[in-house]
Amino acid sequence: MSDNTVFTxxxxxxxxPMHEDGSVNYDKLGEIIDAxxxxxxxxxxxxxxxxxSATLSGEEHMECIRxxxxxxxxxxxxxxxxxxxxxxYAVEMSADAEKVGVDALLLVTPYYNKTSQxxxxxxxxxxxxxVNIPIILYNVPSRTGCKIxxxxxxxxxxxxxxxxxxxxxxxxxxxxxxxxxTDLAIYSGNDSEILPIMSLGGKGVISVxxxxxxxxxxxxxQYALKGDYKTAAExxxxxxxxxxxxxxxxxPIPVKEAMNLMGMEVGECRLPLLKPxxxxxxxxxSELKKFGLV
Length: 294
Description:
Elements: E1 9-13, H1 26-38, E2 43-46, H2 58-72, E3 78-81, H3 87-100, E4 104-108, H4 117-130, E5 135-139, H5 141-144, H6 150-156, E6 162-167, H7 172-181, E7 185-188, H8 194-199, E8 204-207, H9 214-225, H10 229-238, H11 240-245, H12 253-261, H13 278-290
């Protein structure tokens, strides 16, 4: 494995803003990217789960990636979500993303058709062999029904392009095993676990909350990187109720609602994701008020 750390600190899993007719609002995406970089965000993750990659057409997916690379213009790393449950399609998208100039790829495990651990090794190796840029694996079994086991991590870590993982399994002792058994860089995939994962040597977070509190999430990771776990813990606990509200419904429903309440006008999610029920909107609103965000 390469010792290539893609980024340290806080990467935003950026939303994909939509016009009223449901088409991608590129001007707004550009605005948000600039605002994120101006608020010290350390990397931009485009077309992840939070970016509604599941309902973007292939053409839109690549256009969002191309647009982000151009807009960021080397100010911070751009990481493109190019995972798929179809290996051939993931290979094609990953190669295309490399061509347009992304700095790294984020590859979710295959979903729905899932696969065996042997299948995971074959799948990720095929993609890693097709590119020459760093790869961050993405383990989120609650979304995909497919978990990367330790033996599989150890095997995949041998590939020169597979350098990191985004861990959202929700099991801190499992994350400790990855840290003990591999030299992969580990990023928290859950905003509520930034400090626990970083205290085990994690390099940072790929964050949903960074869409609304970018500077705060960046600062939390910086305290942890400096070994000031006391201040990092205070911040982690301070924002816990807000983070919880951002996951009161299926991501990215609540974070888009929060951004709209804050006047960012990112539009609604594409079906089958709906606006949150009124009680959830009220919860999000009250948390935003508590932190002076609306």
